[in-house]
Amino acid sequence: MKKSTLILRIAIGIILLTHSIPGMFNGGINAFGNLYLNTIGFAPFGLIIAWTVKISHVICAVLLFTNRCVKPASLLTIFILAMGIALVHFQEGWFVVGGGRNGVEYNFLLIAVLLQIVINDQKPFELPTS
């Protein structure tokens, strides 16, 4: 029996969009790149990395919505989320709110859902073709 990932794909897509698009217009991505990534050793590429991450989130959301290239998009996003845990969230502990602030639990859940999407995806591993 084929198990649909439609609800999970839509939910993750919405989360990725709402986590990315506002920062494109309110200076959040520029601040993250210049004021954080550049200061932890990514200078002078912090701004480029920050924009690449957020644009990849938007592209991944669109691919999840359209059920195209789901595996590569999900795996790339898992890598980005894991790097977020390593560079930003791990030092803050487990909890995002309540017992702490800015912890790993949210990224952990997103990674788990994306892994389930990859596992349930019935299509062979595909990359975009022209």
User: What coarse outline follows from CA principal-axis ratios?
Assistant: globular
Rg, nearest Å: 15 Å
**Sequence of secondary-structure elements:** HHHHH
* Helical segment count: 5
Uncertain spans: none
Overall pLDDT score: 93
Number of discrete domains: 1
Quaternary form: single chain
Number of strands: 0
Major sheet attributes: none
Distance between the termini: 32 Å
* Fraction of residues in β-strands: under 5%
Class from helix and strand fractions: mainly alpha
Helix content: 55-70%
Your description of this structure?
The chain is mostly helical. The protein has one domain. It is 67% helix and 0% strand.
Quickly list its features.
mainly alpha; DoxX-like_oxidoreductase; single chain; cell membrane; transmembrane helix; transmembrane; 67% helix; 130 residues
Question: Which helices and strands, and how do they pair?
Answer:
Elements: H1 6-26, H2 28-36, H3 46-66, H4 70-89, H5 105-120
Describe the structure concisely for a colleague.
This is DoxX family protein. The chain is an all-alpha fold and 130 residues long. The protein has helices spanning 6-26, 28-36, 46-66, 70-89, 105-120.
